Amino acid sequence: MSQLTDAFARKFYYLRLSITDVCNFRCTYCLPDGYRPDGAGQRGFLSLEEIRRVSRAFAELGTEKVRLTGGEPTLRRDFVDIIAAVRENPAIRALAVTTNGYRMARDVARWREAGLTSLNVSVDSLDARQFHAITGQDKFRLVMDGIDAAFACGFSRVKVNTVLMRGVNDSSLNSFLAWIRRRPIQLRFIELMETGEGGELFRQRHVAGTEIRQRLLQQGWLRQPRGLSDGPAQVFSHPDYQGEIGLIMPYEKDFCLSCNRLRVSAVGNLHLCLFGEQGVPLRDLLTDDRQLDALKSRIAGGLAQKKQTHGLHEGNSGMTPNLAFIGG
Ligand code: SAM
Ligand code: SF4
């Protein structure tokens, strides 16, 4: 039972834990100039022991699902140990990662052995040249091999994240659909979000999720009822397709009503919203095991400050310069 409830009676079973800001890709909508150290990581990113403590505190507060994210989480050399450390908590039944897929072909079987239960891989184009243009890395084949490797080592389903951008890859909707016809992939279209550094790109490239939904409904896709513990994705299925579509539409009215997640940044701040303010520092309570109770109180207390909704509609993206900074 979650002890994490906010002033609007939302319960929080889900933690998104960023373990690094570093990334080796340069996605146009996220880190167009690549990762640049800015001093935020001066003390370094959370250590394995700090990750062990923070996940234990969340587990004792009722967290059932953790997602490791970044930056690119799989670039950490101790990534396998991190998976095992989070899974030491029996309460955490699901452990996912969001990755650009760069290390998957090589390492995914080891992640699964260590306790990873699901994967989201970002793929913004099925055309190798366009993939290169969007991500700054000529790694399309490697990422596709990674997805095959995930299925081969026993993941029965893989989620793929795609950001559609006007005039870039929005005309490829039908190729994406053809791709999941015979593959058990949940393809999740994430509506481009405005960030502190991405205002201009947003104005040029934003495609409304409602537009994509309309196109899906016209092609016979059917909206699935939401499960209680589901996140904010709207899921669609089609009798002719093995794959599913998830639509993540942060600009839709009431998007925040179903919010069930909290975030901890790679430097150990609790963020109540992806687009919130500076966050509640936790790191001073992560230095040894004796501070577990104080840590739990600070997390639960911080939640009282959570606002009902983000300010994106008013063009207010909080202090989030890009999503690599807080883990998307
Ligand atoms: N590097 C990993 C990856 O790309 O999957 C994990 C971190 S990344 C910040 C997490 C997700 O956020 C990715 O699927 C990415 O496409 C998405 N993302 C980043 N910036 C975004 C933006 N401005 N709007 C919408 N989605 C964004
Ligand atoms: Fe890196 Fe992920 Fe951001 Fe792309 S979306 S630059 S892979 S953190």
Task: Set out the fold topology.
Blueprint: E1 14-18, H1 48-60, E2 65-69, H2 79-87, E3 94-99, H3 104-114, E4 118-122, H4 128-135, H5 140-152, E5 158-162, H6 173-179, E6 185-190, H7 199-205, H8 209-218, E7 222-223, E8 234-237, E9 244-248, E10 261-264, E11 269-271, E12 280-281, H9 292-303
Parallel strand pairs: 1-2, 1-10, 2-3, 3-4, 4-5, 5-6, 6-9
Antiparallel strand pairs: 7-8, 8-9, 10-11, 11-12
Helix pairs in contact: 1-2, 1-9, 3-5
GO molecular function: 4 iron, 4 sulfur cluster binding; cyclic pyranopterin monophosphate synthase activity; GTP 3',8'-cyclase activity; GTP binding; metal ion binding; S-adenosyl-L-methionine binding
InterPro entries: Aldolase_TIM, Elp3/MiaA/NifB-like_rSAM, MoaA, MoaA-like, MoaA_NifB_PqqE_Fe-S-bd_CS, MoaA_twitch, MoCo_biosynth_MoaA/MoaC, rSAM
Catalytic activity: GTP + AH2 + S-adenosyl-L-methionine = (8S)-3',8-cyclo-7,8-dihydroguanosine 5'-triphosphate + 5'-deoxyadenosine + L-methionine + A + H(+)
